[in-house]
Amino acid sequence: MREGLVIGFHAVTFLQYAFAVFYDYTYTIVPHDVKSVHNAYGGKFKFLTFWDAILQTMFFLICFLNDLFGTNAVNPKKSSFTRKLKDYFYASLGFPVAMFVGVTFWVLMFVDRELVLPKALDPYFPWWLNHLMHTMIMVTTMLEMIFVPRQYPKRSRSLGILVSFMLTYLVWIHVIYYKSGVWVYPVMDVLTLPLRIVFFAVLLTFCVILYFVGETLNNIIWGKKYIAVTKSVEPDLKT
């Protein structure tokens, strides 16, 4: 029963993000006179939200394939390729990037929505798509944390993947500015160069903190079960 629910959760979540990526790429076309940044160099790939939607689509596809061909055991004797890939993906990108996108978006929306999602975009970017890409990403990544066990990889490797990914995106938005003369996010227009550097440093630090939040939550939820399973398969050395 539980296994079937997990498979259904992964399948539905994969399909919802695949649809979100398809719909956003195909149908959310913003006229140049409404917001020029949407038609600038890079297209939809300017936005971290779009990158993350693609990441979540890939991740939940891997989860679904692991349900079918791998294992979701707490402490498998031999991890399949899909299980190892799933665990690495979740630890290094799946959890921290999803939470980073969701939290930073809604914090900035609370401060001033014009900094991230101007009202002028409402007719072109539907509310349900907004919640799929900025709210549900946090919900589904937390449900994944609760429903399915994982073994966190070495910090040096997974943190290296996360930091490399975020630095790549940071370089990318500067390439876009160099090519088009516009910042991807309006908040950057109101920051001086020193404040922009501080802003980027704070965001990168926050993203790293989210990695440790994910690791801590995983230990809280699955740590005792992992220890119990490990002890149950260890030989009793006293006998």
Automatic annotation (TrEMBL):
For this record, an example GO cellular component is: endomembrane system
Spell out where the chain crosses the membrane: 48-68, 88-108, 128-147, 159-177, 197-214
The record's annotation in Pfam families points to:
Far-17a_AIG1
Indicate how the chain sits in the lipid bilayer: Multi-pass membrane protein
Where in the cell is the protein located?
Answer: Endomembrane system
The record ties this protein, via InterPro entries, to:
ADTRP_AIG1 (IPR006838)
Q: What's this protein's family per the entry? A: Belongs to the AIG1 family.
What is the protein's name according to its record?
Answer: Androgen-induced gene 1 protein-like
Q: Which organism is it from?
A: Atta cephalotes
